[in-house]
Write a structure and sequence with these properties.
This protein starts with a helix and ends in a 7-residue tail after the last helix. By secondary structure, the chain is mainly α. The chain has a domain of about 130 residues. The chain is built from ten helices and no strands. About 25% of the residues are buried.
Length: about 230
């Protein structure tokens, strides 16, 4: 595939996922729901094929890394394949049994490893092996997904949760964005507040400033009001 064809496949898969998600949420009958579920399977299959293509290209390249595959495309493939595995692994057992009828399979460890790979994160280092200059466009989304899993979804599951890894990713992003957050303040605090603390207090409410804005947003959420933009 040419670079244009690769990116076209990636954007097609991303658009198909968004369309399928909206269709599932707003589906009014079982027929429409099944149709969108099949669209979701098609998108996941596309991600899986692109991931296998990337693995094959790297295996045949000198040094184990094909430089013709750009970082932006790689980060998109890792994000899509990683999130697919992670989401499927979070489904209840009965739902997974039904999902497997549509060809869905998810592995939580594989999903987390793929998301970490986009940023070059390892448990042995506090710094990623992928620098800002070398990162792909969707690297930040991979980091955000990891933080959401370890800090927010850990209220509902414990398998795969790693607070030390979350703290490492969070600290690095705080150094990169010292006056901002890894996602909009009101969204971060709403997600964190819904979990009602530990593990340990969601790393101090996803440590980020500025302090007055955080206090104001927290007070408004506690009063049942929408945070200020």
């Amino acid at each position: 595939m040419t670079p244009v064809e690769r990116h076209a496949e990636l954007i097609y898969a991303e658009a198909l996922v968004q369309k399928a998600l909206l269709g599932i949420v707003y589906s009014g009958d079982w027929l429409h729901f099944i149709k969108e579920a099949l669209n979701m399977r098609s998108a996941m299959n596309t991600y899986q094929h692109m991931y296998e293509f990337m693995l094959d290209a790297d295996a045949n390249a000198e040094g184990g890394h094909d430089d013709s595959l750009d970082a932006h495309w790689r980060s998109g493939v890792l994000l899509g394949t990683g999130v697919s595995n992670l989401v499927l692994s979070l489904l209840p057992g009965r739902v997974i049994s039904i999902a497997e009828l549509f060809g869905y399979k998810g592995d939580r460890k594989v999903g987390l490893d793929l998301l970490m790979r986009a940023g070059g994160w390892t448990k042995d280092s506090s710094e990623p092996s992928v620098s800002v200059a070398e990162e792909g466009l969707r690297r930040s989304l991979c980091d955000m997904t990891l933080l959401i899993f370890h800090l927010v979804l850990s209220a509902f599951t414990f398998t795969g949760v790693d607070l030390e890894m979350a703290e490492t990713i969070l600290n690095w992003n705080l150094k990169r964005y010292p006056t901002g957050m890894s996602c909009p303040p009101h969204l971060t605090f709403k997600l964190v507040s819904l979990t009602r603390h530990p593990p340990p207090r969601r790393l101090l409410a996803v440590r980020s400033g500025p302090s007055p804005t955080l206090q104001s947003s927290t007070k408004r959420i506690n009063r049942g009001l929408p945070p200020r933009h």
